[in-house]
Design goal:
This protein is an alpha/beta fold and 475 residues long. The protein binds SN-glycerol-3-phosphate (G3P).
Length: 475
């Protein structure tokens, strides 16, 4: 069936023996846009076997050659940005400009990874025994970083390209092979991205891209004995994976409830701009504003004025607010809104929804008894909780089961900002900006249910390697 995109394994594009496909529904039209192969467990086994063999050869390939191939893939990604971006628009309703940015950022990430890899993987340590009590100078220890083996990469729908390459590039530069399971929505963009790696000339079998239903191959992949490391970005599924996975390193980013704490001395214009800029379907969106009572009215007015200027509509028109990814996501968001309504939140706009498109909504006077105070809408709905002290804001954030990022807005002294930062139980604290993952070489990590391990280019490369030592015992 020529309409179904093939999956990628052993350096070739293949049809699944299942004869079945998975439909990708365009969030805007709510009609099937593309179809991908529904791969079988047998096909997963085969990809794992090939990945294991290919990795053995790849780990012997000189580091500079691995870097050279990654640079080629980065250039190809940028060359094919229009085609890949078009898929992002159709599959996940990402606004057109943001879709192109995702691909360009991905190319930059791959190049940076190649450069960072040749630096940090090209160095080892030399230790001498006599620094530890009781030892003579009779042992020399040499350390090097070796690959883990086969990395399983599972990116989320909201960055199917960027959060795939942020796993693929570190894995490959470090000498690992890679099996990619893209999200269903975003799978075609991911297949096109993988095509760039294919064109760059990576060895056969080193990279596979297996598409299919999570219910059929999800657990099979994550519990597969051939997997030596899992890098996952997504939602609650990550918690389930961590409970079932074997004794392999895990790197996980599982969402958050990032707060923006706004103090009396904040630059309100800057805060309002940051809040608006970082909305919607990203782990690091501002998902609750904790505003000091004294400035809350002014802040809400400014945000309201900015919300009124947001364009709402299809991603092709590059609207600010586009449809959320699925009908069930839209229903979930609506559930949070209705709960807030029932419990007396102030609606700054009228709630409006058409299909998967939800108009931006600011909810003021949200109270801790409302679901929206704690749950992650992953859509254009923003609650404002009024606080009477900074401690109250810190307490609200730390009471969350998430711990990704928090933004603190205050023009006060750096001592005050650092004291607040110190009290926050999150992986990152942003001072006078909004939560964000990038720049992509910065460490990125969540505490509590927000994740395991740390990402960012350097941390990912290190995480996908093991230290190996050779000890020379002198006569
Ligand atoms: O939602 C995924 C998360 O990694 C956010 O990335 O670049 O939007 O901060 P970014």
């Amino acid at each position: 069936d020529g309409d179904v995109f093939k999956y990628y394994a052993d350096g070739e594009w293949k049809k699944s023996s299942s004869g079945k496909s998975v439909a990708i529904v365009n969030p805007t039209t709510r009609k099937t846009q593309y179809k991908v192969q529904a791969c079988t467990q047998e096909e997963v086994n085969k990809a794992m076997e090939i990945a294991k063999a290919a990795q053995k050869q790849w780990s012997k390939t000189p580091l500079w050659k691995r870097a050279e191939l990654l640079h080629k893939a980065a250039a190809l990604l940028k060359e094919h940005k229009a085609l890949i971006a078009e898929c992002l628009v159709k599959e996940i309703a990402k606004p057109a400009k943001d879709a192109v940015t995702e691909v360009v950022r991905s190319g930059d990430l791959v190049s940076y990874c190649a450069e960072e890899g040749v630096r940090i993987l090209g160095e080892g340590k030399f230790l001498v025994s006599d620094s530890f009590p009781g030892n003579e100078r009779t042992k020399y220890c040499l350390t090097s970083k070796i690959p883990l083996g086969v990395i399983l990469a599972i990116p989320p729908f909201n960055y199917p390209v960027n959060l795939a390459v942020s796993k693929i590039a570190p894995a490959l530069i470090a000498g690992n092979s890679l099996v990619l399971k893209p999200p269903t929505q975003g799978a075609v963009a991911a297949l096109h991205m993988v095509h760039c790696f294919h064109l760059a000339g990576f060895p056969k079998g080193l990279i596979s891209c297996i598409t299919g239903k999570g219910s059929e191959i999800g657990d099979f992949l994550t519990m597969h004995p051939g997997v030596n490391c899992i890098s996952f970005t997504g939602g609650d599924t990550g918690i389930a994976i961590s409970k079932k996975a074997g004794m392999v390193p895990l790197q996980m980013e599982l969402g958050g409830k990032d707060a923006c704490i706004v103090l009396e001395d904040a630059d309100i214009d800057l805060v309002a701009a940051n809040i608006i800029k970082r909305s919607g379907q990203r782990c690091t969106a501002v998902k609750v504003v904790l505003a000091m009572e004294s400035i809350a009215d002014a802040l809400v007015e400014k945000v309201k004025a900015k919300v009124a200027k947001l364009t709402v509509g299809p991603p092709e028109d590059d609207c600010d607010i586009t449809p959320v990814v699925t009908e069930s996501s839209a229903n979930f968001i609506e559930g949070l809104v209705m709960d807030a309504k029932k419990k007396g939140a102030t609606f700054c706009q009228e709630y409006k929804r058409e299909g998967n498109l939800i108009w931006p909504l600011l909810l003021d006077n949200v109270r801790p008894n409302m679901r929206i105070a704690w749950e992650e809408p992953f859509g254009p709905v923003l609650p404002v909780i009024r606080i009477s002290s900074v401690e109250e804001g810190i307490h609200h954030c730390n009471a969350s089961n998430f711990g990704l990022q928090v933004a603190v807005s205050s023009q006060g002294t750096s001592t005050k900002q650092l004291l607040i930062s110190d009290a926050m139980e999150t992986g990152t604290v942003q001072i006078n900006s909004a939560p964000a993952r990038g720049p992509d070489h910065f460490p990125f990590q969540g505490l509590k249910d927000s994740g395991i391990g740390s990402q960012g280019i350097t941390n990912s490369i290190n995480m996908m390697t093991k230290v190996k030592t050779t000890v020379i015992n002198l006569p």
